[in-house]
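Researcher: Please translate sequence to structure tokens.
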Amino acid sequence: MPIDFSNIFSIAGKTALVTGGSRGIGEMIAAGFLASGAKVYISSRKGDICDATAARLAAQYNGECISLPADLSTMAGIESLAAEIATHETSLDILINNAGASWGAPIDEFPESGWDKVMDTNVKGVFFLTQKLLPVLRAAGDSEDPARIINIGSIDGLQSSVFNVFSYGASKAAVHHLTRFLAHHLVKDHIICNAIAPGPYPTWMLSTGVGFGGETEGVDWNAVGATNPSGRVGSPEDIAGLTIFLCSRAGAYIVGETIASDGGTFNTR
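Model: Translation complete:
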């Protein structure tokens, strides 16, 4: 009997949580999930922005997008979000650990507060949110269709950055290695963990670094993209497409990898 490949890239009917989902890469992933028929929870620190993004995405994609604001740099915020998910769902198919922070300062002036804020959000937050959500992730997966954890790292965790973001680069390298540890320990529970290391995407975070003041619309992203080997910055289709692949049946045998989504920045220079 021929194998049915017709739904190999489908995530329709799955339930996902996207942290940092109110803007940037998290919003791009959430939009792609909704367009693909998934139910999506998004979380971010600022409740009004999270609520507005969830409502807008639900309307745009005629899907179910629920806002659950939380500060994932604190254990209280992590525990609150995990408890909220548990009140809504008995199982969770997909966790996208995307919430992140950065801090830039010259090395001689780099403050302890900038180090701690970034590490607490980008590393501690990823580990402990994953830990608290293990019951619903374990309930979702089986050997043929495991639950998925995708940690959003960065190209700055694979190579040195031109920016003075010392704690950010270190935190993302830690996320990549933490992904391997989580993959090793959780695959037996039918939970598979991978990481994506994005390069330049048109996000608030990159906008602040390149001098656009946090603006993502009406600014010259083509100038930023011109420095990339592919000649452009990333698009929502790029990051959502890779994430959907990893969360679909097509990606069910990929475990513990960190995949760069950077237009060739890392591998062609």
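Researcher: Any highlights?
Model: Residues 204-233 form one domain.
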